[in-house]
Amino acid sequence: NSSRAISNLRAYFDKYRQDNYELKIIDVYQLPHLAQSVDIIALPLLIRKFPLPEVRLIGDMSDEKKVVRTLGLQNQEKLNDGADTNI
User: Fold this and answer.
1) How many CB atoms lie within 10 A of CB 67?
2) What whole-number distance in Å separates Cα of residue 76 and Cα of residue 80?
3) Which residue has the higher pLDDT, 17 or 7?
4) What is the rounded distance in angstroms from the CA atom of residue 17 to the CA atom of residue 27?
5) pTM for the full model?
6) Helix H or strand E segment including 67
7) What was the pLDDT predicted at 38?
């Protein structure tokens, strides 16, 4: 369900030390014009706007490896881990 997907995404951002993000939730049933304006064709859908290029992930957000790989979060974890060991 959508609340579980949102919870999973926030947990991934916390785990992979992504504190500079904005997560916008759009209910396409309440705001269909917004869904149409960004060409939403399937749900659930996660759109990463930045850094470019834009990336879209459709479907199950509970697959951590898939979400992390698609969003490029694993690279940030390695960079942050390396920085922590130099302190």
Assistant:
1) 20
2) 6
3) 7
4) 27
5) 0.68
6) helix 64-71
7) 80
CB 38 within 8 A of CB 47: yes
Helix H or strand E segment including 74: helix 73-85
Tokens matching residue 11: 């947990």
Question: Collapsing DSSP states into helix, strand and coil, what is residue 15?
Answer: helix
Peptide bond into 32 cis (omega under 30): no
Helices 73-85 and 2-15: angle between axes, nearest 10 degrees: 30
Average pLDDT, the chain: 79
CATH code matching the domain that covers 2-85, chosen among 1.10.860, 3.20.20, 3.40.30, 3.30.450: 3.40.30
Q: What are the tens digits of pLDDT across the range 51-78?
A: 889 999 888 889 999 999 988 887 554 4
